[in-house]
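pls ignore typos typing on phone
molybdenum atom + seq
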Amino acid sequence: MGKKGKPEEGKDEKPGGLTRREFIGGAGSIAGGLIVGSALLAGACTRGPNTTPGPTSTLPPDTIISPDTLREDRIPPGQYQTNNWPVLQAGGVRRIDPPQWTFTLSGAIDNPVVLSYDEFMALPTVQVFSDMHCVTTWTRLSNLWEGPGSKTIAELARVRPEARYVIIKAPGGFSANLMMDDFMRDDVIFATGHDNKPLTAEHGAPARLVVPHLYFWKSTKWVTEVEFRVDDQPGFWERAGYHNRGDPWTEQRYQTSP
Ligand SMILES: Nc1nc2c(c(=O)[nH]1)N[C@H]1C(S)=C(S)[C@@H](COP(=O)(O)O)O[C@H]1N2
Ligand SMILES: [Mo]
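k done
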């Protein structure tokens, strides 16, 4: 447990803060220690010395295991492990009133629809076990997410074959762009729950994307629209100088990174 007090919740993350490290060594709160499947992972993965938190119970049946959680060393280069869960976004936390919220599917699709909160929450869900890596260098291991998978959303949209990019949008003009191949993975999820609890407003309720294999800025909180596109359209952080793809394992942090 850390001794520095609470993480800097709700603090803005700014383009000028490319090298900020405020969150390093932040307070220890209870991490998702309740979820990791010891029986499941023990045989599959040799843990390095810095890959705690350790397993304490079993994952729900049929949980999708994100491939990166099976790496021998789960901490990408230049990252450090935190057991907190920092709250980061441009601007303040959005507190969304469910009746006011809609989830829109648009672009190069055959089924453009606008779902209400109740319609979205009635979609079939999956559970995904994955790690998260923020470009500001914190990594949080062993999260259990619940919500509709990206493939469920793509099927519902009836994506046309020419679509090659997906733009995930949020209130206030925020967006993040993804290649279809990065979106259409089994462990990409529109999370409505985390570690067996409903997602909080701070972390993106009612639904936030989670793309485990890319830096966490791609994981749009408070998703309002998913637009499938033929051409790419760099999003908020990408236009602010971050890499267009953002692979943490090759440190694709900034536009200038390889
Ligand atoms: N709508 C929205 N989603 C966003 C962001 C944002 O600025 N706006 N920032 C991203 C960044 S940089 C990170 S690290 C994660 C942080 O998610 P968390 O607050 O749940 O840790 O949200 C991502 N999703
Ligand atoms: Mo981030």
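The chain has one domain: 41-250. Residues 150-157 form the longest helix (8 residues). more later
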